[in-house]
């Protein structure tokens, strides 16, 4: 295969390689030890080394080198394992390039020409591989070529898909093509001789939405920080909008929050992203959310079929989804019927004889002696083979590693007596893991007995355990409230935490042993919150309950250090411990934090903020009258944040809140959205008439306090009514709402919009909204946290624009830099302070330096930029942060003359001495370099001659001052001085500072000697002396005190930044592009 040209020293090649073919410009070489028949010792040794080396370090046995006559350096341009492939490459070079190379007179031109051609061949191969992944390879290949030529982006900018559409400018549409790539969206139009094209990085997109206007009923609006653009007339609007949301979401999660949000492994490698991959990832995200599966599960198959449902006495049409460890069936109407079957519960998957009544049947047998029948399966044979292979692999692993207690068995009904809010205190050893729930109950009342009887009837008809049929009937039972004796079992079943517990025996015990006794920030926060968790409940008023809660929270913090411990986890874990055993409570907590509430419990609670943004849109959609009276819904979403974080446990009475947790484990996050909408609808009139946010908070708080459970003996709902509120002297009657009624209402409000019926709120809709709103939340977080982040004199507008330039430079390196994905992501650390998160290296800084510095230094620019980077890199990690970058620009544009001179002076002393600049002197050699810097800054200035004269005068004055000081220090000894003058400065103008041990790009040691900081008898001059001399020349004072327009510089930099970086990269990769 062709390679990006890499330098190779010929003297090394002669030892390990044998030349098979050669001419004036190319060598075909074979690695010693490969293909040798003589068996010489050297060949055997090299061959043995190549064999035992790791595959990543192993060298291919054949390669082709580009050699230039008279040079000791060659370039590897192709390599391979088969001699036939290398002969094809060799023949192509001989036939197409060899005769053309003889016309070049300069050997550097030969190397550049060949390297450009090879890179062009690589690009063509890349285009071919990308096109082969598409449904219509030839059509995609043409689109890819147009994309590269029209926008000039590097070949590594992966095109995903294209759409024909209109882009609107005011009321004028322009028909053209929209290109969606992994990092950008680009539009091109050529009509009536006028060309229009633009590129928008996904990282700049702040909002994507579908809107309707007077002209068009359906448009896509793309909003950036600078402007809005509207697109319409897509042949497939839904598909185009979905891919735009996915690509923007992937880019922002990859670029803005690489350490905070999980990103699928397949999407981390941008070269893998295709239209088909995006469709698969969207389906995978939906399946994981629908069945609340572990986020590491990979979707294997999705097949249309029908499942026999005994309760309905018919086959229910739907889709079978298979992942690494699960089978999931969902009916065509989401929520009507679903089944989840862990592969660990499956005994066999068998094909049955196909008939006209039962076409293509498959029987899935499980351990509970039940079987599930599927018919009308598409591609049945390959599906059964795939399932059988995974099942055998899983059974083999279980038979090898599973302990004797691999299955978790739950008692069907508690035989122990039932009593409320009581605790058996004989189990007070805080060091032993609790083997029973902390909440015990006796003497169940009539309502509890009725609920238990209903559930037992349901189990007999629909099954029991993880693979029970989940239908609309079970939804009604959950809305009534799960009986106390079954609550723990059903929570484990609905959430599938029971499968995790079964597959990880003794895992929790080991975590407890490892984590207890360790001290960290998480354990300190846990200890602080232990006694705040349900403090009024008897179970947590003694050592046993507190010890169990401590173990669960500490074990989870040890399991998942990325999350560690977050507030509200203590409340949730406390409730879980009341109804389940300690180990079960741990796995329920794992399921909630890692599956059911994704990205909620991290440093910035991004997941909760995204859901609040989704909640606002659902309010506008399903409660339009409320949204009309309250245009700004952000106060309501702020109030509702605690509803989502604590599952209403912190705002509802305890027994009512536990019923909400029942619904949450059955429906997932959808239950919280539905209940939140129901609460707002019930209080819509009061909220519309509220005067301010405080009154709205009081309305909602008062309502939630009065939501009661009908089973609660203390509930006022069952008590006789009080005197009417209309009688004088009597307080108004408090209106109480039953939690069961509120839950039932929540199912209805999610299906209607006033009097107009709407589709039910589905998991698919929630996942789609999350994808779109995550873009908005991440960008809003960026904007909010960067305000007033740096204490500088720059205007907020300029500071924001400069930050965007700085971040874009980081992104460009991530898009197209060498080793882009790994290296660039390592320079972004979300755990650092905001202004220190993004960092740039030396090459990136030089690009920004050229764009923003007020005085370019001609041929001396690279030297000054290099010294400036070294000065700003205070922690010596080869990166500078935005805080350091902004402080440097603030000095150049906003500080007084003496601060600017101080900065220039610091460029010529070791960075560590800048804090003692008043006591640090520079030698004559560095003073001459200082003068070179000043000279180069004046080139092109209208007052260039006057400034040169002024600096010559200052140079002479400072040299005289330094000479006097030198003689005074060397009194009594013979003084020999070169007496550098301004003529010497001019003479040395082109020398640069490559030999300087501090500021040289070469890695050399030593700083003090070269600056004369150790030898006090050398010629030196101080900062104060230079500053005083400069102040004597008004022309220089005017130059440094002249106000400079940073806004204009930033605006120009925005236009140039992509061109400066993308253009050279493009033409380097495609040297013959201009000929096309």
UniProtKB/TrEMBL annotation:
Molecular functions per Gene Ontology: calcium ion binding; GTPase activator activity
GO cellular component: cytosol
Keyword Calcium on entry: no
Region (Disordered) residue spans: 709-733, 968-1011
GO aspect biological process, one term: glomerular filtration
Coiled coil: none
Protein name stated in the entry: TBC1 domain family member 8B
Organism expressing this protein natively: Esox lucius
Phylogenetic lineage: Eukaryota, Metazoa, Chordata, Craniata, Vertebrata
């Amino acid at each position: 295969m062709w390679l990006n040209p890499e330098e190779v020293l010929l003297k090394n090649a002669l030892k390990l390689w044998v030349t098979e073919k050669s001419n004036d410009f190319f060598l075909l070489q074979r690695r010693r030890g490969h293909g040798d028949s003589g068996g010489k010792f050297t060949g055997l040794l090299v061959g043995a080394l190549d064999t035992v080396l790791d595959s990543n370090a192993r060298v291919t046995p054949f390669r082709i080198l580009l050699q230039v006559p008279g040079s000791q350096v060659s370039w590897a341009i192709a390599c391979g394992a088969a001699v036939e492939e290398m002969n094809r490459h060799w023949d192509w070079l001989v036939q197409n390039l060899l005769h053309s190379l003889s016309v070049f007179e300069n050997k550097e031109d030969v190397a550049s020409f060949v390297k450009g051609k090879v890179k062009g061949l690589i690009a063509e191969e890349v285009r071919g591989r990308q096109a082969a992944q598409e449904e219509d390879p030839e059509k995609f290949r043409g689109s890819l070529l147009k994309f590269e030529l029209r926008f000039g982006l590097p070949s590594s900018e992966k095109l995903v898909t294209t759409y024909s559409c209109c882009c609107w400018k005011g009321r004028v549409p322009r028909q053209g093509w929209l290109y969606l790539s992994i990092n950008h969206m680009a539009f091109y139009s050529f009509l009536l001789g006028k060309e229009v094209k633009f590129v928008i990085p996904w990282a700049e997109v702040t909002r994507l939405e579908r809107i309707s206007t007077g002209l068009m009923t359906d448009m896509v609006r793309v909003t950036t920080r600078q402007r809005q653009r509207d697109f319409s007339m897509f042949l497939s609007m839904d598909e185009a909008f979905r891919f735009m949301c996915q690509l923007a979401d992937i880019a922002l999660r990859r670029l803005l929050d690489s350490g905070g949000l999980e990103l699928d492994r397949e999407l981390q490698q941008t070269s893998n992203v295709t239209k088909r991959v995006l469709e698969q990832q969207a389906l995978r995200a939906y399946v994981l959310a629908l069945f609340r599966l572990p986020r590491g599960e990979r979707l294997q198959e999705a097949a249309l079929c029908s499942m026999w449902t005994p309760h309905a006495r018919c086959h229910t049409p739907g889709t079978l989804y298979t992942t690494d460890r699960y089978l999931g069936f969902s009916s065509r109407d989401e929520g009507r019927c679903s089944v989840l079957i862990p592969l660990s519960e499956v005994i066999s998957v068998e094909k049955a004889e196909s008939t006209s009544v039962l076409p293509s049947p498959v029987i899935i047998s499980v351990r509970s002696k039940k079987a599930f029948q599927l018919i009308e399966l598409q591609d049945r044979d390959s599906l059964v083979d795939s399932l059988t292979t995974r099942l055998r692999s899983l059974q083999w692993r279980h038979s090898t590693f599973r302990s004797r207690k691999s299955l978790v068995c739950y008692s069907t009904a508690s035989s122990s007596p039932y009593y409320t809010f009581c605790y058996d205190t004989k189990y007070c050893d805080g060091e032993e893991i609790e083997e029973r729930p902390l909440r015990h109950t006796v003497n169940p009342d009539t309502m509890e007995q009725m609920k238990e009887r209903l559930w037992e009837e349901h189990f007999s008809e629909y099954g029991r355990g993880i693979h029970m049929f989940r239908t609309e009937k079970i939804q009604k039972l959950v809305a009534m409230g799960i009986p106390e004796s079954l609550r723990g079992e059903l929570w484990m079943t609905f959430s599938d935490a029971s499968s995790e517990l079964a597959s990880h025996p003794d895992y929790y015990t080991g975590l407890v042993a490892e984590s207890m006794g360790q001290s960290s920030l998480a354990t300190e926060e846990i200890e602080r919150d232990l006694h705040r968790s349900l403090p009024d409940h008897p179970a947590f008023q003694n050592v046993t309950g507190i010890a169990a809660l401590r173990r669960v929270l500490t074990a989870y913090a040890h399991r998942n250090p990325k999350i560690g411990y977050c507030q509200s986890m203590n409340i949730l874990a406390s409730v879980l411990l009341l109804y389940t055993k300690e180990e079960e409570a741990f796995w329920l907590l794992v399921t909630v934090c890692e599956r059911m509430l994704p990205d909620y419990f991290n440093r910035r609670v991004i997941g909760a903020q995204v859901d609040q943004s989704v909640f606002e849109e659902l309010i506008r959609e399903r409660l339009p009258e409320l949204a009309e009276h309250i245009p700004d819904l952000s106060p309501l979403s702020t109030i509702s944040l605690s509803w989502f974080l604590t599952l209403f446990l912190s705002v509802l009475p305890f027994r009512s809140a536990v019923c909400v947790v029942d619904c949450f484990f059955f429906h997932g996050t959808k239950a919280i959205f539905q209940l939140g909408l129901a609460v707002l609808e019930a209080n819509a009139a009061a909220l519309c008439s509220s005067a301010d946010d405080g009154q709205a908070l009081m309305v909602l708080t008062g309502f939630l306090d009065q939501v009661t459970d009908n089973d609660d003996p203390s509930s006022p709902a069952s008590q006789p009514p009080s005197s009417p509120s209309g009688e004088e002297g009597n307080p108004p009657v408090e209106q109480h709402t039953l939690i069961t009624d509120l839950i039932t209402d929540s199912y209805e409000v999610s299906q209607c919009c006033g009097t107009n019926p709407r589709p039910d709120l589905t998991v698919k809709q929630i996942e789609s909204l999350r994808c779109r709103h995550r873009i908005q939340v991440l960008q809003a977080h960026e904007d909010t946290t960067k305000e007033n982040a740096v204490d500088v004199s720059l205007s907020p507008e300029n500071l924001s624009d400069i930050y965007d330039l700085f971040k874009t430079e980081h992104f460009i390196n991530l898009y197209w830099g060498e080793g882009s994905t790994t290296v660039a992501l390592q320079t972004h650390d979300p755990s650092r302070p905001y202004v220190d998160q993004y960092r740039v290296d030396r090459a990136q800084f030089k690009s920004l330096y050229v764009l923003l510095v007020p005085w370019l230094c001609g041929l001396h620019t690279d030297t000054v930029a290099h010294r400036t980077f070294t000065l700003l890199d205070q922690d010596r990690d080869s990166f500078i942060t935005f805080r350091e970058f902004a402080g440097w620009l603030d000095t150049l544009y906003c500080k007084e003359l003496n601060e600017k001179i101080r900065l220039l002076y610091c460029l010529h002393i070791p960075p560590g001495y800048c804090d003692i600049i008043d006591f640090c002197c520079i030698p004559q050699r560095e003073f001459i370099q200082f003068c070179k810097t000043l000279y180069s800054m004046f080139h092109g200035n209208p007052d260039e001659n006057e400034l040169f004269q002024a600096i010559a005068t200052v140079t002479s004055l400072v040299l005289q001052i330094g000479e006097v000081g030198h003689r005074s220090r060397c009194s009594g000894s013979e003084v020999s001085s070169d007496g550098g003058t301004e003529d010497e400065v001019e003479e040395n103008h082109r020398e640069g500072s490559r030999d300087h041990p501090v500021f040289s790009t070469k890695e050399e040691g030593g700083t003090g000697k070269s600056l004369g900081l150790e030898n006090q008898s050398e010629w030196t001059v101080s900062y104060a002396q230079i500053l005083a001399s400069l102040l004597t020349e008004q022309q220089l004072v005017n130059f440094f005190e002249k106000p400079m327009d940073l806004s204009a510089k930033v605006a120009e930099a925005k236009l140039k930044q992509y061109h400066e970086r993308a253009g050279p990269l493009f033409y380097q990769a495609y040297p013959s592009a201009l000929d096309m």
